């Protein structure tokens, strides 16, 4: 796709592109399926079964089913977009065609934050699991990595960087081996528990019954327990679309197939885990799900298998411990590569300096983006040396970016209805808005404390768009760009400091002051740019600014907010979020427009190759 910051020299750009090396087209349906499968089966399968019980009890089974169904709505829209735009790092680019750079930057920046934080999440998980033998790597009193453990995690990040740097064919070979092991071990775990130790009384015959935390917990607990985190890796197949032999066929088919397979595995794992609990061996009162979590939380399946006393299961627990390294390793490898491809994609559309779009002449990999993403991943180890501290931010940023699916697919249907779509979403009138609402609800269920962080991070990142090639396209002075960027950074930093040090203790009055400042920063910034440029990108991004403001308000006063007595308890908060999401969705459709890049595709009928 042409760089939007250099439209006046498109012929020169095309000449330069033709002389540059292109990404290898070597991946098959099997590879897209496996890379999506790998993204979804990582450290989550080892933690989330017990984590879900801590928040939902046996009803966690329903949470996995509901989450899988909700993900279907999002995945079918992304499958259509992935087939339509078979780009590496595609999720960073879709909304660019219908709403322009500012709207798309918010969404792609959120996903970049999610990708960057996932790599150290898995690195920390590997080192934590290994601490059973490497005592020096983990501080059990503080539940954080030691300096030596952080060093080991950094070495792991560098190792997978080398694999991705050498080339996608090398990763293809590595991923097939790791994924095969990751798939087999969970399946064997299910079979062994079902056939050798299974107590059906754990489902209904305990204090609190099947819904010890209430029916709403299967929704409200889906984020914090890791259920949604477990599914979110589906988009890895989209990230490698530009390297697929037949992306129009293999990308949608590979991703959807992976979802169904993974959903079956997670649901059966949850059932097996509940049935395999030996309460007396755990020294926890039957039905005390929180007590069980505290007792077995560091290695859930390992402790459960050992507690059964069945020799074969005890022996298999050792294999579980080994897989506790392999499962995160596969997801880890996938995200090291996908993060680089996200940066690569942002550079290709002019959001970051062009150097990040460089492809290595020998290995044909996005080498500059790989180096940059590796450095940032290592830096994230310093302030977040635990699995849960990074996971909550990572999954929330991811689901924020997933809002691009439904609204972009619908806008494309409205703007370019005759564009060839290799995969068409069935019942799109339902699936498009439902996909947006689902993603929005997942953001809401992250809770106020995380929603607040996500909006703060989005604001901090916004000036990078203006300081990059896009700022030159706006045809304003560099001094104006510098001034507006400094305003955003200084104002956002001041608002954050004021909130955490002064306003947070003032209750809802403090929130009103703080969120008014956060809202004004977004409104003033885009209004000033609009007055200077009259750019259609400003109007097209208004839907997301409205969403940012409203999601903060509802999340603060809702059931997962900061108030001891929520103004919007369950289920009224969910109803309000659905209504608000639909209103924002249709505002987004109203302001969508046929961007210059979309007009080129419509005119030629050809999606540019990389």
TrEMBL record:
Keyword Transmembrane assigned: yes
Protein location: Membrane
A Pfam family matched in the record: AA_permease_2
Transmembrane segments: 26-47, 59-85, 106-129, 149-168, 180-198, 210-231, 251-281, 367-384, 390-413, 425-444, 450-468, 480-502, 508-531, 543-562, 574-593
Key words of the record: Membrane, Transmembrane, Transmembrane helix
Main location: membrane
GO molecular function annotation: transmembrane transporter activity
Record's GO cellular component terms: membrane
Membrane topology: Multi-pass membrane protein
Protein name: APC family permease
């Amino acid at each position: 796709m042409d760089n939007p910051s250099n439209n006046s020299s498109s012929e020169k750009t095309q000449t330069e592109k033709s002389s540059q090396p292109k990404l290898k087209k070597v991946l098959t349906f099997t590879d897209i399926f496996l890379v999506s499968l790998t993204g979804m089966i990582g450290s989550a399968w080892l933690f989330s079964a017990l984590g879900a019980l801590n928040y939902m009890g046996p009803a966690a089974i329903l949470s996995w089913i509901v989450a899988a169904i909700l993900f279907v709505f999002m995945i079918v829209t992304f499958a259509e977009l992935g087939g339509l735009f078979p780009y590496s790092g595609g999720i960073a680019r879709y909304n660019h065609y219908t709403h322009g750079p500012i709207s798309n930057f918010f969404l792609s920046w959120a996903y970049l934050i999610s990708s960057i934080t996932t790599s150290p999440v898995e690195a920390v998980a590997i080192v934590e699991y290994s601490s059973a033998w490497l005592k020096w790597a983990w501080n059990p009193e503080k539940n954080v990595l030691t300096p030596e453990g952080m060093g080991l995690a950094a070495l792991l990040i560098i190792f997978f960087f080398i694999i991705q740097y050498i080339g996608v064919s090398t990763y293809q070979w590595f991923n097939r081996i790791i994924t095969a092991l990751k798939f087999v071990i969970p399946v064997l775990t299910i079979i062994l528990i079902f056939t050798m130790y299974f107590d059906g009384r754990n489902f209904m015959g305990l204090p609190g019954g099947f819904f010890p935390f209430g029916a709403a917990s299967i929704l409200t607990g889906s984020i914090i327990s890791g259920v949604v985190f477990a599914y979110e890796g589906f988009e890895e197949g989209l990230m490698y679309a530009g390297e697929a032999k037949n992306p129009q066929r293999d990308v949608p088919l590979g991703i959807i197939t992976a979802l169904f397979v993974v959903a079956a595995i997670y649901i059966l794992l949850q059932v097996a885990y509940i049935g395999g609990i030996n309460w007396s061996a755990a020294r926890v009162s039957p039905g005390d799900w929180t007590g069980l979590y505290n007792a077995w939380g560091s290695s859930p399946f390992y402790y459960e298998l050992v507690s059964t006393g069945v020799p074969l299961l005890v022996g298999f627990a050792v294999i579980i411990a080994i897989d506790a390294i392999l499962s995160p390793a596969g997801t880890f490898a996938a995200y090291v590569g996908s993060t680089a491809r996200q940066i690569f994609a942002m550079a290709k559309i002019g959001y970051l300096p062009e150097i990040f779009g460089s492809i290595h002449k020998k290995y044909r990999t996005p080498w500059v983006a790989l180096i940059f993403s590796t450095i940032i991943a290592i830096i994230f180890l310093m302030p977040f040396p635990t699995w849960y501290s990074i996971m909550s931010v990572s999954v929330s940023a991811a689901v924020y970016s997933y809002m691009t699916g439904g609204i972009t697919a619908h806008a494309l249907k409205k703007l370019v209805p005759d564009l060839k779509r290799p995969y068409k979403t069935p019942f799109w009138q339902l699936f498009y808005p439902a996909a947006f609402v689902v993603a929005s609800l997942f953001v809401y269920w992250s809770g106020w404390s995380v929603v607040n962080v996500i909006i703060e991070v989005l604001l901090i990142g916004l000036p990078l768009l203006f300081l990059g090639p896009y700022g030159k396209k706006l045809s304003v002075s560099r001094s104006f760009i510098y001034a507006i960027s400094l305003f955003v950074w200084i104002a956002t930093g001041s608002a954050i400091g004021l909130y955490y040090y002064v306003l947070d203790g003032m209750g809802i009055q403090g929130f009103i002051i703080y969120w008014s400042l956060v809202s004004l920063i977004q409104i003033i910034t885009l209004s000033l740019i609009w007055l200077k440029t009259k750019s259609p990108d400003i109007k097209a991004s208004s839907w997301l600014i409205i969403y940012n403001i409203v999601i903060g308000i509802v999340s603060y006063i809702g059931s997962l907010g900061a108030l001891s007595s929520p103004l919007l308890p369950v289920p009224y908060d969910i109803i309000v979020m659905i209504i608000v999401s639909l209103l924002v969705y249709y505002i987004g459709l109203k302001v969508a427009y046929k961007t210059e890049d979309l007009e080129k595709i419509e005119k030629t009928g050809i999606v540019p190759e990389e």
